[in-house]
Write a structure and sequence with these properties.
- The complex is a heterodimer of chains A (297) and B (228).
- Chain A has 297 residues and is α+β, with helices and mostly antiparallel strands.
- Chain A has two domains: 188 residues, no CATH class; 95 residues, Alpha-Beta Plaits, CATH 3.30.70.3040.
- Chain A is built from eleven helices and four strands, in the order H-H-E-H-H-E-H-H-E-H-E-H-H-H-H.
- In chain A, helix 2 packs across helix 10, helix 8 packs antiparallel against helix 10 and helix 10 packs antiparallel against helix 11.
- Chain B starts with a strand and ends in a 9-residue tail after the last strand.
- Chain B is built from seven helices and ten strands.
- Chain B is an alpha/beta fold and 228 residues long.
- The chains are: A alpha+beta (297), B alpha/beta (228).
- The interface between A and B is medium-sized, with 18 and 20 residues.
Chain lengths: 297, 228
């Protein structure tokens, strides 16, 4: 393809954008709004996934040992626990260590412990983590079978609930994204159809003069892609800046650390890149759709 | 150059535009296609530059069956055919020179070729002094000259003119037909659909008469032959 031809395509596209600037602005705005919602949904889904993954990996099993088992007998269980399939780490915590920790946690109220009169009511315990969150339940069941165990705790049901919540977030997010994407395609298609309609005489003449379909199609594709790209650019700027502002607020004013992706600039760059790509694709798809019927003859 | 063999065209709405038409046009000929409105003249011309496809039959253009052309090949067929219309089909927002060079731009001709061919074509039709005018500033005859310049600017071997004088007064019509005759003398084949009796009778060229979609007469140095 000649460079002159490419510059012709771009010139024609820009000319037509200038001519239909109001319609262009409207469809650009719609792409921007759609992609803003797409971007926010994606951020929500990604953060929910991240949070879920973190919570899932934080789930640990705590096995309390019966109070009549001596510390040496309790310590001796470690190898046996370690050999259960799916176990990744085993940590023993004696009743004395537990008391020290408890003291630390209580801080100024440690005289509560002194009131116990030297007795330590805490049991020995094991903290067990698994290789994958799916193993938690099986490992816990096996631990319960040990005669020395008093009680095995692993936040029964929390893992399952998290799984179903993330599934729902993903599903709803995806549906919203697909629907809005379709709406954006439709709006670009409508804008381009107006341009095509305004220039149908010119297109008819071009066809009679022997222009190839691609030669006719390109300026409209460029026009659609410019609309989609510009709309996406606006959306990226708005989404990124508002996300950064929200993170700032959450971190500084609420002192929460639940938005785990905030420090990951690669995530924002990737999100921006994906949105620009999707916007451009939406534009091309929209104009492609409105050209198809027109070029049949 | 053109060889139509038993060509029929039935439009999707059932109209039988052409029935079993066979027609040969040799290179360098000047052919009038005559007949009353609705006889099938326009359909026949549209079949040649593949605006329409025949329902049955073969249309050979330089030996190639254009009825079987793939969509991607159609533009390259059309680059061999200059088409002139009754309503000129000029772009109103482009100047005379731009309308003519448009024909070369859309087939991606080189800049050098455009600089050379456009003034030549405009000189041929006698509009060298109106290159920067827009169509609305021109008379009907001048607009049709622009249409002719656009049709001949890439030197196609065939010119198809569909009622080129239909919107013009008799004197201007003669100028246009004489211009087409000049172009024909340079070796370009011309196929002109018309129902201008005076011109057909005056030119004494080959006349193909259509009636109800059939060829009813085909004679060298013919006359219009209808009283309408």
């Amino acid at each position: 393809m000649r460079i002159r031809t490419i510059s012709y395509f771009i010139r024609e596209a820009l000319k037509s954008l200038y001519r239909n600037s109001w319609m262009g602005l409207a469809s650009m705005g719609t792409v921007a709004v759609s992609l803003i919602i797409v971007g926010l949904s994606l951020i929500t889904v990604m953060n929910a996934n991240y949070l879920a993954a973190r919570l899932e990996s934080n789930v640990e099993i705590i096995a309390f040992i019966k109070s009549d088992v001596s510390e040496d007998d309790a310590r001796a269980l470690k190898n046996e626990i370690q050999s259960i399939p799916g176990v990744s780490s085993v940590e023993f915590r004696s009743k004395d260590q537990a008391l020290v920790e408890f003291r630390k946690e209580l801080g100024e109220q440690q005289n509560m412990i002194n009131a116990l009169g030297g007795e330590n009511p805490l049991p020995h315990l094991y903290k067990v983590t698994t290789i994958s969150p799916g193993d938690v339940e099986g490992v816990a069941k096996k631990l319960e079978l040990f005669p020395q165990m008093e009680k095995v705790d692993y936040g029964k049901g929390v893992v399952e609930k998290l799984f179903s919540i993330t599934r729902w977030v993903r599903l709803v997010g995806l549906t919203v994204i697909v629907l809005l994407g379709l709406a954006a395609v439709f709006l670009i298609a409508t804008t381009i159809r107006l341009t095509v309609f305004a220039r149908r005489k010119e297109i008819q003449i071009m066809k009679i003069l022997g222009a190839t379909n691609w030669f006719i199609r390109w300026p409209f594709l460029v026009e659609g892609m410019v609309l989609g790209f510009t709309g996406a650019l606006i959306a990226v700027l708005i989404v990124d800046f508002s996300y950064l502002a929200v993170i700032d607020y959450v971190q500084k004013d609420l002192n929460l650390n639940i938005l785990g992706l905030q420090k990951d600039t690669r995530f924002l760059l990737l999100l921006g890149g994906v949105m620009l790509g999707v916007g451009t694709f939406i534009g091309a798809l929209g104009s492609g759709i409105s050209m198809r019927k027109f070029l049949k003859v | 150059m053109i060889n139509m063999i038993n060509v029929s065209k039935i439009y999707p709405n059932g109209t039988k535009a052409l029935t079993d038409v066979s027609l040969r046009v040799e290179k360098g000929e000047f052919v009038f296609l005559v007949g009353p409105s609705g006889a099938g003249k326009s359909t026949l011309t549209k079949l040649i530059f593949r605006e329409e496809q025949p329902t049955r039959g073969q249309i050979l253009f330089n030996g190639k069956n254009i009825a079987r052309l793939r969509p991607g090949e159609v533009p390259y067929l059309r680059r061999n055919i200059g088409v002139i219309f009754q309503d000129f089909k000029l772009l109103p927002n482009k100047t005379v020179a731009e309308n003519v060079s448009f024909a070369l731009e859309v087939i991606e001709a080189s800049k050098r070729e455009i600089r050379k061919s456009v003034p030549e074509a405009l000189e041929m039709v006698g509009l060298s002094d109106k290159v920067n005018a827009v169509p609305s500033e021109l008379s009907g005859g001048e607009q049709q000259r622009v249409g002719i310049a656009r049709a001949i600017v890439n030197n196609p071997p065939l010119i198809i003119a569909d009622e080129p004088t239909g919107n013009l007064d008799p004197e201007t019509s003669w100028e246009i037909v004489n211009l087409l005759h000049e172009i024909n003398k340079c070796g370009t084949t011309v196929l002109m659909a018309t129902h201008d009796k005076v011109i057909v009778d005056g030119m004494r060229k080959r006349v193909v008469a259509l009636e109800n979609g059939r060829v009813v007469r085909d004679e060298e140095r013919g006359a219009y032959g209808y009283e309408d």
